[in-house]
């Protein structure tokens, strides 16, 4: 069964109480022609190798703590912090503890 994504005007709770820090999960909340918003939950000690997204993006820390590497530096994101990356900027991350991120991608879909 396909997951349903929020439609224009739908209310979405981004701090889902069911999000477990013990496992790595990703849930797409909004998917449209040129935007995708998803919640990424990372367990403590999770490392994501350097990669890039298919567009510009923002990463907002909702809970926990994660080291975020991009543009030749590493910064620690904590709740309330947001970082912007331009189109396809390479980045990597390492969660210091269970972490919840809200990621918004601005895509080039036609």
Automatic annotation (TrEMBL):
InterPro entries: AraC-bd, RmlC-like_jellyroll, RmlC_Cupin_sf. It comes from the Bacteria. Gene3D superfamilies: Jelly Rolls. Keywords: DNA-binding. Residues 46-97 form the AraC-type arabinose-binding/dimerisation domain. This is Cupin. The lineage of its organism: Bacteria, Pseudomonadati, Pseudomonadota, Betaproteobacteria, Candidatus Accumulibacter.
